[in-house]
Amino acid sequence: MLVTNTVLREVSRVINATPVSSADLVREYVLTVIGRQEDEIHIRTLLSNAMETQPLSFQSLTSEDIDGEPPRVRVTATVRMHPKDQAKLERMASRMNMERGVSWISWTAAEVETAPE
Questions:
Q1: For residue 58, what pLDDT is reported?
Q2: CATH of the domain at 100
Q3: Domain that holds residue 95
Q4: CA separation (Å) from 26 to 20, 56, 100?
Q5: Helix (H) and strand (E) counts in the chain
Q6: Which residues, in sequence order, are CB contacts of 56 under 8 Å at separation 6+?
Q7: Which residues in 31-45 are b (16+ Cβ under 10 Å) and which e?
Q8: Residues 95, 91: Cα–Cα separation, whole Å
Q9: Structural domain includes residue 37
């Protein structure tokens, strides 16, 4: 019993000291696009198509009107992916920024967590 506890204690220390593999990390990114209200469907379509062509793990796509003149819309896409694929999101944001009717675009990353098995 003493030998088992001693061996298992050492194994436990090794496991706990081992960093989580970067292959197991997932980060949630939120991409926000502001554009003309009349271009809402165009912006949503571009985001949806970009998710398929990259490909990225699309979690949600929402829109909300912004008061003011001219009327604007905020379209927000939430994506989950490995941080090494962040360049895909950057390319998508860059591409969206060139679209007619898009006046503002940004993205943020949430905390890293372990990928579900």
A1: 79
A2: 3.30.70.260
A3: 24-112
A4: 12, 12, 32
A5: 3, 4
A6: 50, 79, 80, 81, 85, 88, 89, 92
A7: bbbbbbeebbebbbe
A8: 6
A9: yes
Other C-beta atoms within 10 Å of 14: how many? 8
Low-confidence ranges of the chain (pLDDT < 70): 1-24, 53-55, 111-117
In a domain, 16, yes or no: no
With respect to residue 28, please indicate whether it lies within any of the assigned structural domains: yes
Element (H, E) at 107: strand 102-114
Residue 26: which of 55, 51, 49, 57 has the closest Cα? 57
For 17-101, strand residue ranges (E) read 25-36, 57-66, 72-81
**Domain count along the chain:** 1
pLDDT value for 95: 87
- d(CA 7, CA 29) in angstroms, rounded, equals 42
Contacts of 93 (CB under 8 A, 6+ apart): 31, 105, 106, 107
List, edge to edge, every strand of the sheet that includes 57-66.
Answer: 57-66, 72-81, 25-36, 102-114
Task: Note whether 54 and 92 are within 8 A (CB).
Answer: yes
